[in-house]
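Here's a chain:
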Amino acid sequence: MKYLVTGVTGQLGYDVVKELLKEGREVIATGRKDNTTLCSSYVKLDINNYQEVKKVIKDIKPAVVIHCAAWTNVDGAEDNIEEVFKTNYGGTKNIALGCKEVGAKMIYISTDYVFNGKGVKPFREDDKKEPLNVYGLSKSVSEDLVMNLLDKYYIVRISWVFGINGKNFVKTMIRLANSHDKVNVISDQVGRPTYTKDLAKLLIEMSLKDKYGVYHVSNEGEYISWYQFTKEIYKLMGINTFVNPVTTEEYELSKAQRPFNSRLDTSKLEEKGFNKLPDWRLALKDYLEELKKSDSLILKRKR
């Protein structure tokens, strides 16, 4: 079984390729950069170029395409609508058409941002979509596109992603602790984190089955606020920086409107016979150990 993975320089794409290689599977990694040291089978690919995408997929003939490439700068999306839709909608359309031509399964990565974030009830897969910002809208219409074009697809909605490659909330909080005695963290947005290493294993499991459809995925455990997540990060790291809870309104730093409720109901995974992800606390411990082994400069700065 041959895999093609897009966006391998991002958090999730990087870990998907790593896990596939660990399992000894044949994988072709793609990205916009000229080269990468992650995988020997690497192809430079601009997903916005249909002819390029068509040729690469037709030549490789993958059995599975895991589409991780996306515009993910949520605040930046508000001022770059055309570029966001070119990548998140147009690029996804190109990948989906390529999959359709060769009969490949497509795994499309989406987000909790397709919902309006109201209430406290965890969102299920069939709940009404009502995105609050440009990024969420671009992912929502891309989901619809995949569902309309393909039969063999997985749409995987995730939340609060963190991984070893690239920027994320955990790294940011550790970095801020190195230079601040106090940090303000939002306490009225609630959800659960998703560790890309755990998610990558699930995506591979999905690729081996044909239980297609839309799935919600995050690490398990209690739903928490960003404030609570930061407290746990600092506790595990032995960091003494004071964490000050603030409301979204008080924070006033986000250009894009963010959902207050990012709770995702992940029960469908178990119903369909898939393994749920570990508790987020265990995932965070695993991730911090991974950061230490990676010789991360973030952990070396004086606190």
Q: What stands out?
A: Residues 81-102 form the longest helix (22 residues). The mean pLDDT is 94.
